[in-house]
Amino acid sequence: MTVPGRRSSTFIRLLRSGFTDPSAAARLLDDDALAAVRTDPVLLDALGATADPDLALLGLVRLAEAQPADQLPVLLDTLVSAKPLRDRLLGVLGASEALADHLARHPRDWQALVTYEAADLHPGLAEFEQGLADAHDPVALRVAYRRCLLSIAARDVCGTTDVAQAAAELADLATATLRAALRIATAAAPEDARQCRLAVIAMGKCGGNELNYVSDVDVIFVGEAANGTDEGKGIQAATRLASHLMRICSETTVEGTIWPVDANLRPEGRNGPLVRTLSSHLAYYQRWAKTWEFQALLKARAVAGDEALGAEYISAITPLVWQAAERENFVADVQKMRRRVVDNIPAAQIDRELKLGPGGLRDVEFAVQLLQLVHGRSDATLHSGTTLDALHALAAGGYVGRADAAQLNDAYRFLRSMEHRIQLYRLRRTHLVPEDEADLRRLGRSLGLRTEPVAELNKAWRRHASAVRRLHEKLFYRPLLDAVAQLAPGETRLSPRAAGQRLEALGYADPASALRHLEALASGVSRKAAIQRTLLPVMLGWFADSADPDAGLLNFRKVSDALGKTPWYLRLLRDEGAAAENLARVLSAGRLAPDLLMRAPEAVALLGDAGGLEPRTHEALEQEVLAAVGRAESGEAAVTAARGVRRRELFRTTAADIIASYGTEDSPAEEDPGALVDRVGDAVSDLTAATVAGALRAAVRDQWGETLPTRFAVIGVGRFGGHELGYGSDADVLFVHEPREGVDEQEAAKAAQTVIAEMRRLLQLPTADPPLLIDADLRPEGRSGPLVRTLSSYAAYYRRWSMTWESQALLRAEPVAGDDDLGRRFIELIDPLRYPVEGLGEDAVREIRRLKARMESERLPRGADPTLHTKLGRGGLSDVEWTVQLIQMRHAWAEPGLRTTRTRQALAAAHAAGLIPTEEAQILDEAWVLATRVRNAVMLVRGRAGDTFPADARELAAVGRYLGYPEGRVGEMLDDYRRTTRRARAVVDELFYGA
């Protein structure tokens, strides 16, 4: 019986030794099986040194209890007298519950850990083959495999081998296991073996000599018929052998499974034959293979079966791997591959994902493999399937900075060590960091973190993951700057050829020019060059994410040249997190936004201000424009100031639109395209109204001072009145005036015409700012009618002569500048025309339909594709707008919600009133929004307006990126547009034409 004092003493000692449940540990120490060693202080210290002392002690008791009577003293004597065995055995028991289970089932296997000789410290393939030599069936193979695994784990947890050596040993053990499995399969089907030659090619981590404890073993099978055997029969025999090999390794037996053998990296994946001839493999890779398949083949290694055939396969595919960077679609594939896919990781797991999460193992492996593909075609030193060896070679060759490579090496080793220890615990395939406190404690202690294991583990993990995230992009671009900069003695730089290869691989069409821009920006010893060298690696990555990286870099150089001497510019980009990325997105998305910025580079400051991209109100814009006009000394100076405000605000609008459409690292892309369209329409329409008001004030002041002899108002119509202006839209207007008391009508008319002419002249003066064209062709009688009328003249004309189409045009009329009261009275005058009481008659409806049909046949430009023309094409803007406007003219007299100038609001009101079913309303809205976005995209990309998709491939890709389509998906974009507008046209045929 244990006395209380002694129990208390033991309790405290166990607690200090790292046991979390000292009471349970004390009971286990009292187990009869440990009677001979329970008081040995060496044992308790050794248990306390393990990752999980409680787990180690439990495993030791189970192992001792399972020993035959004659073997228990041998185990315990060796345990207390031989430190190497003690450390290895208890280290494994404290780190792996699964291997403790194996030892309890096979109690003699602990003796595999006794030997401590030089050859045992670093066993190779031959030693593992010897360890599996006596296994002649799947069950025996599993037992022998775990016995070998036991020795690898023991050296790993004791620090005898590092993580890279452990991974290489695991790959060697997998190779030996595949050979043993093939031997067993061959023995079971000797006739099949005689009919074929079969080679097993390891891929993935096994092929790269960097396997995990528990991982699918990726393979490819190559077969040939044996001499004298029909090829078909030979391949069938090889397929049966390969299938049996896979089952031997993968199937669950009384001893569990080893690991799944996965052959899905073969040509055509699961849909392709399991075994192919060498010529069939080569035909596929030469004709059909994708870039990712060559990336996978980087790690191909012949491991089992016919050695000569395996060597032939490796010899044949190796040149294809290193020529992959010269393939036509390599750049597009690389850009898609660089955008790491984490969509299939559950949101709750992404922060615990060691492999695929941000800053995870995949980031390092992918970056290294991509650089190997780019530079390995001209440098054979990079031809390694092992990540850390390849990283070392990249650093030695100057393809990666030495400091960056060292950081990545440390991070990768730490993350792989975490992955190994997590999998070793239960020998389960997982890449998730556990959440349970006890699991985290064991994991931290297994990595040598003993003071505060959980806190230290989390801190170290986050530090290394952060380093990987930070270096992932920098890895590609930093050496490009070193190639054009002064380096310290002994540093290696990229050659111009290698730098050009890398820029080409990242999407730069003119690498020579790109290098010149980098040299101009980053060379020298000035503070400006030093900041640019800090900024450019990540800027180059953002440019590469766009459809035109060359334009992005060129524009960045232009802006930097213009603002380089200002103290705030580079500081803004360096210190304001979003500013640099926002600028990169804006400069590489097309011509319009950079052109606006080049005319006033100081507008860059908007990109770093939290509220800098928010649209300003109409009142604020008009107030600023009128104040600027008031300060100017002449009409030209006044409108120059007004147009300057317009240019800055257009840049604000385009920048906000681009950034919201592309998204940034901290802010995802706007999911509602309708919100983007409404934002642009409101902002550009309000800005145009403020500019027109400024031009009107300037034109009046120059000749009449503050008061014009006639009241004067500008009425916006078309997209202007509907708050739907795009970047390339003209301003459609009507002009109305009313002579002041005592002023002759002819004098008033002349004054109004003079003001209009002066406004147009001022707004179209050739300056650095984009002109604003005023179009009054929607006035009564069109171009044949007077440019301006009095309110009473409008009333007389509409009363006597007005056509149905003119009433339709007035649906979007809204005062935008000038005399408020006159504008309001004009609206009162036209309301009965556009919203006729009892709605349009059938004759008027037929007239609108005839006019629309004639417009479709006559106005579509010759040669234009009617399925892709955004304005006049099938299901485009005209189709949707005429349908909505017909509903307004028929029902707005009774439905107040329809009395709006905005198409989308009117469509929503028609749906709310039950005039359009839900699905049809959604179809029309989607088509109208999409067509509007395409027009905006064309203007943003080309810098000039257009109603159809660009023909140039790079411009078309840029339109796609703006619309949210990844690189290489323009065909999908055009198909989506056609499908959306085809559905809209079917609704138009029903609702507008009554089909």
Give the SSE layout.
Layout: H1 4-16, H2 22-29, H3 41-48, H4 53-66, H5 72-81, H6 83-95, H7 97-105, H8 118-121, H9 125-132, H10 138-158, H11 163-188, H12 190-195, E1 196-202, H13 204-207, E2 217-225, H14 231-250, E3 261-262, E4 275-276, H15 278-287, H16 291-297, E5 301-305, H17 307-322, H18 330-338, H19 361-375, H20 387-396, H21 402-426, H22 437-446, H23 453-482, H24 496-505, H25 511-522, H26 527-544, H27 549-563, H28 569-575, H29 577-587, H30 592-599, H31 618-631, H32 635-662, H33 673-704, E6 710-716, H34 718-721, E7 731-739, H35 745-763, E8 774-775, E9 788-790, H36 791-800, H37 804-809, E10 814-818, H38 820-834, H39 842-858, H40 877-891, H41 903-912, H42 918-942, H43 953-962, H44 970-991
Parallel strand pairs: 2-3, 2-4, 7-8, 7-9
Antiparallel strand pairs: 1-2, 1-5, 6-7, 6-10
Can you characterise this structure?
The structure is a single chain. This protein has 995 residues and is mostly helical. 61% of the residues lie in helices and 5% in strands. The protein is built from 44 helices and 10 strands. The chain is elongated. Residues 1-6 have low confidence and may be disordered.
The percent of residues in helical segments reads 55-70%
Structural class: mainly alpha
Q: How would you state the average pLDDT, rounded?
A: 91
End-to-end separation: 99 Å
Q: What composes the largest sheet?
A: 5 strands, mixed
**Unreliable runs, pLDDT <50, ≥5 residues?**
1-6
Q: Rounded to an integer, what's the Rg over CA atoms?
A: 38 Å
Describe what is shown at a glance:
This protein is mainly α.
